[in-house]
Amino acid sequence: MAIRFYCPFCDQLLGIAQRRAGAVVECPCCHGKVGVPAEEAAELPAAPLELVPLASTSVPPDGIVLSRSQLVALLLALGLMLLVSFAVGLVVGALSG
Ligand SMILES: [Zn+2]
């Protein structure tokens, strides 16, 4: 696990090993002396990495449900078409005969 924090001098997002918490490091961007916070800064925006697993796990079940309902709807439509054509054939046969 790494601690991520912003350099107070140049606002560069920095990452450093958690065991370096409390140490003073040199910012690779502006070379300022930066104290490493004990934990990640609270004002950091939500990490996109934490959102990705939620989105990726919620997508496959939805896709399966959608394809199943679409398959059922397709089968129902096909059956309805067969019924309608059968009924039309009956009516046409009754009219002509
Ligand atoms: Zn800096």
Give a quick summary of the entry:
The chain is an alpha+beta fold and 97 residues long. 51% of the residues lie in helices and 16% in strands. It folds into two domains: 2-35, no CATH class; 47-97.
Mean pLDDT: 80
> N-to-C terminal Cα separation, in Å?
84 Å
Our count of helices gives: 1
Strand content: 15-25%
Helix/sheet category: alpha+beta
Radius of gyration: 32 Å
Structural shape: rod-shaped
The small-molecule ligands in this entry are: zinc ion
Oligomer: single chain
Low-confidence spans: pLDDT under 50, at least 5 residues? none
**Order of strands across the main sheet:** 1-2
List SSEs in N-to-C order: EEEEH
Number of strands: 4
Number of self-contained structural domains:
2
The main sheet comes to:
2 strands, antiparallel
Percent helix, as a range, is 40-55%
Spell out the blueprint of helices and strands.
Elements: E1 2-6, E2 13-17, E3 24-26, E4 33-35, H1 48-96
Antiparallel strand pairs: 1-2, 3-4
What does this structure look like?
The structure is a single chain. This protein is an alpha+beta fold and 97 residues long. It has 2 domains: 2-35, no CATH class; 47-97. It has 1 helix and 4 strands. The chain has a two-stranded antiparallel sheet. It has a two-stranded antiparallel ribbon with strand order 3-4. A hairpin with a 6-residue loop joins strand 3 (24-26) and strand 4 (33-35). The N and C termini lie far apart (84 Å). Bound molecules: zinc ion. Zinc ion binds at residues 7, 9-10, 12, 27, 29-30, 32. Zinc ion binds next to loops.
